[in-house]
Fold these 4 entries.
Entry 1:
Amino acid sequence: MKRLNYLSWDEYFMAVALLSAQRSKDPNTQVGACVANAQNKIVGVGYNGFPLGCSDDELPWDRQGHYLDTKYPYVCHAELNAVLNSISTDLRNCRIYVGLFPCNECTKVIIQAGIGEIIYLSDKYKDSDQVKASKRMLDLSPHISYRQLTTKLDSLLISFVTPEL
């Protein structure tokens, strides 16, 4: 008899997004993204961080202060990195899994890439202008849908210790 408590595809890809977030050096917010195609193959992953070659010791991680002294003008979001890191140039009909609902800038990238669905965990910034703009664009885009992941899982344990057989 087969095992019954295995991950659904949505749970699996969201877990990959959450694992990718662990690569982020942002001290406040770690976000990961995973792009999967219609054949349930991962075609791109990303996490929030500074652009390639820009030292994360030289640029600021602050959230408040003068704009140029904060992380905001420098950080590449997880969704952008997942699209840029994709092994395919054709992301039409793919799904993107992300821990936070995408901001307006990432939503533009997702729409332009032709991604067909956004699956997210948290919508904690739903009252922000950025997310309101995102939803406005998405609601006007006939080829893309979005939904919050519903799962009975609270957590997932990953162990680096091989079980004894």
Entry 2:
Amino acid sequence: MANVTYQKDILKDKVAVVTGGTSNGGLGTATAFHLAELGAKVYTLGLKADETTIPNVLDVEAIEMDVTDEEKIEKFFSDLTQLDILFNGAGVNMPDQYKYDTYKKVMDINANSAFHISNLARPLLAKSDIASIINVSSMYAIFGSDMAPAYSASKGAIGQITKSLAIEYADEGIRVNAVAPGWIDTPLMDSLPEGQAETIIERTPMKRLGKPEEVGQAVAFFCTPAASFVTGAILPIDGAYSLF
């Protein structure tokens, strides 16, 4: 992926943690790779980490991690000695979300883990000169979904977690923002019913799907001095889909 946004090595000597970053072709992986292209050492956490394809030229280490495994995630952060960037990208959208067990699982992965991990990262981030947390919201935080009440609720919660932590962490120089992706061309699109992708594109004013690297570039913006006075923001990356 070509670096078209920032100069080479703007994140040199910085350390980033990306959760949900082990799925090939996914948003987390694209974000991990883009931060590494800008010079960061990146730890990308997620399931099936041994299947993650990482270019040899990038300083990215994939680590097997269930973000709801509190003991394991706490051990990981206790062993870290430096952290400058946290991207809370772990998330799921499951069937049968009107079942309470499913609802709880989606909330735990999408929202509760982001809150927990942000607090674990706080002491190390407070030592960084570019400390930045980026969460992942969604269009569904705006207009909801009858098919995905848990997912929609979790992403609505992410918005309030982002704003609340932005206020709480400000005195320590930690900025907290979120991206709200729309329809992005990831492997998840393959599960859509036939013809739905075309309907989505027709409704989207920009008349195309987003690219995973476009989310990664927006995340990079929040991590650099270009966003030094930006905190508590939620940035839609959806080609204006959510405006309708």
Entry 3:
Amino acid sequence: MTFQIVAAVAVFVAAYVFIATEKLPRVLVALGGAALMIVIGATDDATAFFSEDTGIDWNVIFLLLGMMIIVGILRQTGLFEFLAIWAAKRAGGRPFRIMVMLVVITALLSAFLDNVTTILLIAPVSLLVAQRLGKSPVPFLLAEVFASNIGGTATLIGDPPNLIIGSRGSLSFNDFVVNLAPVIVVLLVVLVGLCRVMFRSTFAFDADRAARVMALHEREAIRDRRLLVKSLVVIGLVLVGFVTSTLTGLAPAVVALLGAGLLFLLARLEPRKVFGDVEWETLLFFAGLFIMVGSLVHLGVIDAVGQAAKSAVGDDYLGASIALLGGSALFSGIVDNIPFVATLAPLVHDLVADGGPAARPLWWALALGADLGGNLTAVGASANVVMIGIAKRNGHAISFWQFTKYGAIVTVVTVGLCVPYLWLRYFLV
């Protein structure tokens, strides 16, 4: 067992170094690392493919697949071109105003959809807006993925880790809104200010390009009105399915796949047009990443770290909340926040059960740290991986370090602001 633990940690660290340095394609590194985990016995095929706790999270994989298919079909209607022209005209062709609009829209959508779905919907709009303005889409895409991770923190259904926390802590949708939405509004305003500084070179105004944008007619961008109506109806049904999933018992992944299948039947498009927009490399990267992290969970590595933290807490729940906030942000930025929260949630549950109401803020510290920490690196959250895949597919590769350069700033500032929030809200008596 000792050999397996050492070998598994070595494989994970090496894989992360390769992903960070981009010496090899990330999908190759993830799948190669997953294969090595099986070879050294850190996991096995049954655990990797069928374990709910330490294997591939098929809910995430199939949710992504279903939404990629839906967005691929929707792209055929010209809706994204319509939205791009509409947004650019409403902002007078000024890049910063457009970014603010897209950031606010992304954050709001992420609060009621999951942030991955939001990025799948909003990224194509950003690519087209940037093209019309003659700007690089990278700053817009980065701002939006930061907004999606921040906005998704506000609700139970906004970010996958929140679903895990809500289930473990018996926390309702309203619990999340009341406890997290106030600080998220503040953080969103702060993000807009950070974007103004970080991407200031992007906001140069070009009067000629703006004039050409203002002369465009957005309605002319719609290529297939009948398919647009069908797509919007299906997307509406999918959103209803997401919101009511706790009542119907249908997992979001099942809802997404049902919606994708229904729209595929209604659209009657050639399969290559539908499946050609699926980010297969992204899905395979997720699968490999889940297996590698799941192997560490399976061997008890992450659990050992959590137990050590548990023994150090004592009755100092303010200190524990701050430590959990910072630690969750750091580790979630490194190992992806979904498996991290899945591992830590049982430990927090025990702490809250022992400490009673005084320990309840630990849930909000975990949610804030894990969700906001997802902005730290390119692999910190599912939305990051999806956005980078979309950017690469459209000829705008975003390196690991390019993402981290901006993501680290956003994470440090937003997580730092959560410290006084937790203190003032729960411990200043």
Entry 4:
Amino acid sequence: MKRKDFITWDEYFMGIALLSAKRSKDPNTQVGACIVNQHNKIVGIGYNGFPIGCSDDDLPWQRQSENINDTKYPYVVHAEANAILNSTKDLHGSRIYVALFPCNECTKLIIQSGITEILYLSDKYRETDIVKASKRMLEMAGVKMTQLDMGNKVVELDYSIID
């Protein structure tokens, strides 16, 4: 008889996104993204961080400063953008799993790449103009938005079980 406590596809792909977020060096916000095609094959993964060749030690991680160039915002590539840029296949008809609802810049990339569904956990910035613009564009483009409820489920990784 097969196991009954296996994780669902949504739990699996969101888990990959959350695990990817652990690669981020951002001290405040770690976001990961996982893009999956119509056959449940992963075709792109990313996390938020600085562009290749731009040192994590030489650019700022601050959220606030009098000069925007002394903050992380002009430099960080978001997880969704990295997942799209890291993709291995055509993304038309695929879906993206991300913990945090995408900003307007990532939304433009999501739409242009052909992704047809965003599955997310948190919409904590829903009242901001950026997320309102994102949702407006997604509705116009016919991209489905699905907020997942994972409840209080915990999935633990234990590297010590491998001999």
